[in-house]
Specification:
Layout lengths: L14 E4 L8 H13 L4 E4 L6 H15 L6 E4 L2 H7 L2 E4 L6 H7 L6 E5 L2 H12 L7 E4 L23 H10 L4 E4 L7 H5 L5 E4 L1 H4 L4 H14 L7
Parallel strand pairs: 1-2, 1-8, 2-3, 3-4, 4-5, 5-6, 6-7, 7-8
Helix pairs in contact: 1-2, 1-9
EC number: 2.5.1.3
Keywords: Magnesium, Metal-binding, Thiamine biosynthesis, Transferase
Function: Condenses 4-methyl-5-(beta-hydroxyethyl)thiazole monophosphate (THZ-P) and 2-methyl-4-amino-5-hydroxymethyl pyrimidine pyrophosphate (HMP-PP) to form thiamine monophosphate (TMP).
Length: 234
């Protein structure tokens, strides 16, 4: 039932999809959209549904895991550590979810942990935890790049470059050896610009979930990100 368990180094972070049942036309459509998006180049999927109870969420996660079986595409679940542990899925948490040290302690070693970050102080805290012996998260989600209606609990847009930007935070994360993806307002309008930063990939929600053709939408984004010349982030 569950997808394979690649290490962070084996994952293609170039295009990361976060699901949204409302944008996708309902929960029953999510697994099908994921399947189409993977055909277009999505290399990582995160299942997010804030209103379902754990049992119903686990059923949906199992459906998406079945779609991804054999593809090599890892499935993360958003803020459902019990579901992640029970189904053997990777976990993504935000700053206001389960504490990162607690999540790392509870999550089996073969499962990856993602963490949302929006400023340098949060990476500084990670640095302290890592220095104290904690295994670092496997990936950071940096954003929002631009303010977006799909995530309304953020105070400011980071922008692509400049102090405190996605690029700035991605370079900081690389000092800890952690890859990152840019999320929030990511589209074909800024995918090429983001390729020229230190992020390992772009993370989208509406750009694929609300698309008439998720395969084509994913392919367009993936092509823009992977075929744009990038500067050395070091």
């Amino acid at each position: 039932m569950t997808p394979g368990h690649p290490t962070a180094e084996q994952v293609d972070w170039s295009l990361y999809l976060v699901t949204d049942p409302e944008l996708g036309g309902g929960r029953d459509a999510v697994a099908g959209i994921v399947q189409q998006a993977v055909a277009g180049g999505v290399g990582v999927v995160q299942l997010r549904d804030k209103t379902l109870d754990d049992r119903a969420f686990a059923d949906r996660a199992a459906d998406v895991a079945d779609v991804l079986a054999g593809t090599g595409v890892p499935l993360f679940v958003n803020d459902r550590i019990d579901v992640a542990r029970r189904l053997g899925l990777h976990l993504h948490i935000g700053q206001d979810d389960t504490d990162v040290r607690t999540a790392r302690d509870l999550l089996p070693d073969h499962l990856m942990l993602g963490l949302s970050v929006d400023d340098h102080s949060q990476i500084d805290r990670l640095s302290s935890l890592v220095a104290d012996g904690m295994r670092p998260p496997d990936v950071l989600g940096l954003g929002p790049v631009e303010l977006t209606p799909t995530k309304t609990d953020t105070g400011r847009a980071l922008g692509v470059t400049g102090p405190g930007s996605v690029d700035d935070l991605a370079r900081h994360a690389l000092e800890l050896g952690i890859p990152s993806v840019a999320i929030g307002g990511v589209s074909t309008a800024n995918a090429a610009a983001l390729r020229r930063t230190a992020v390992a990939g772009i993370c989208v929600v509406s750009a694929v979930m609300a698309a008439d053709d998720p395969t084509t939408a994913a392919d367009d984004l993936h092509t823009l990100f992977t075929h744009t010349d990038r500067k050395d982030p070091a």
